[in-house]
Write a structure and sequence with these properties.
13 helices, globular, seven-stranded mixed sheet, single chain, alpha/beta, three-stranded antiparallel sheet, 368 residues
Length: 368
């Protein structure tokens, strides 16, 4: 009796996942977290109109979804003043990243990212046998100039850049990124992850023509729109690139409920603006709590704040573990010097009250 014959790539990969979810920890300990402040979820939830639309869609769940996401694509096109042919909808940015890497990367192809940036991108590159090259952050920001210099050095086919950034929450103004495009080597695509763009200051999104073949932009309904569990996002780019997704994507991957919820969420601008304001207030509160404990928090254009614990990664990990032991779920960057910080997602007032109560105890225990 023999087993399956795995590919050489799969045989060489470790059995790992990019993130360990809070539910795993809850099962291990047998108790639920009192506050989830680690996964950059939108705890304020989706628009009531989106909830109603998803509830209504449940009755038709016996039907397959619209494989073209026609209504949502056309609504997004109107929202961004582009053509529907410039947009593809997918199962969250994570799913779209996987499709993009599959489209472009063969074993040995060079890919460039920042050391410590979003690990799911790296996960997909490894899964298709790409050769991943990393550059360090500069002053807690991703470094566009260094990324593009490295891309030239290694002949990269793909460069990943998040703006605003995860895990640090920092950002570049759009003009900086637009100017950096002039240094992108021929035949290289800039993957611009804009998952947190709704929270960022005006001018953060670069003014790049939608048909520019050098760039693909990805946005999500998981963050500002609050439907992370539905897994729905979209990519915008030149028609030829967008059409190429149809060659390999899971055409029924985005379910009917997610499409209905995203469409309704997109149309509720008032709820979106209320959420953005709530996130800004929560970021300010996290910074205040950090300051009250003698800590520095990084300015953030996302729905989380990176708090500098003032020492090294080992100490920050000790603080994180003490918070988790006290039923407060947070995460931290995984690479020095970023890992001197813990990353705290925006929460409701009661969540941040718990943070204010728990953080001093966690620091005292970590120092002991």
């Amino acid at each position: 009796m023999t087993g399956p014959r795995y590919t050489d790539i799969v045989r060489a990969l470790p059995a790992s996942v990019p993130f360990v979810g809070p539910e795993v920890r809850e099962r291990e300990t047998g108790k639920a977290f009192a506050a989830r402040l680690g996964a950059n979820e939108n705890v304020f939830g989706p628009s009531p109109k989106a909830i109603a639309a998803m509830q209504e869609a449940v009755g038709d769940i016996w039907k397959y979804s619209d494989a073209t996401s026609h209504d949502l694509r056309h609504a997004l096109a109107a929202h961004h003043r582009v053509d529907p042919e410039n947009i593809v909808v997918g199962e969250g940015i994570d799913g779209l990243l996987g499709y993009l890497v599959r489209l472009l990367i063969e074993p040995g192809d060079a890919v460039v990212t920042s050391d410590g940036a979003y690990p799911t991108f790296n996960y997909h590159v490894a899964g298709f046998g790409g050769d991943l090259h990393k550059v360090p952050y500069k002053d807690d920001h991703e470094d566009p100039a260094a990324l593009l210099t490295k891309a030239k050095e290694v002949g990269a086919k793909l460069v990943y850049l998040a703006n605003p950034d995860n895990p640090m929450g920092t950002w570049h103004d759009g003009a900086t990124l637009r100017a950096a495009l002039d240094d992108l080597p021929p035949g290289c695509l800039l993957m611009l992850d804009e998952a947190y763009i709704e929270f960022a200051p005006d001018g953060t999104a670069p003014e790049i023509p939608i048909d520019d073949p050098r760039v693909i932009r990805m946005r999500t309904f998981s963050k500002a729109y609050g439907i992370a569990g539905a897994r729905i996002a979209y990519a915008m780019g030149a028609p030829d690139l967008i059409q190429s997704f149809d060659k390999i994507r899971n055409h029924f991957g985005v379910n009917r409920i997610a499409q209905a919820g995203a469409l309704a969420a997109l149309q509720d601008e008032e709820w979106l603006q209320t959420t953005i304001q709530r996130m800004a207030e929560a970021r300010d509160r996290i910074a205040e709590i950090a300051a009250a404990n003698g800590l520095h928090s990084l300015p953030s254009a996302a729905n989380f704040v990176a708090v500098d614990c003032g020492r090294d990664g080992d100490f920050a990990r000790a603080v994180l573990n003490e918070l988790i032991e006290r039923d407060l779920f947070v995460r931290m960057p995984g690479v020095a010097p970023l890992n001197r910080c813990i990353r705290i997602s925006c929460g409701r007032p009661q969540d941040l009250d718990l943070l204010a109560e728990t953080l001093p105890k966690a620091f005292d225990a970590a120092r002991a």
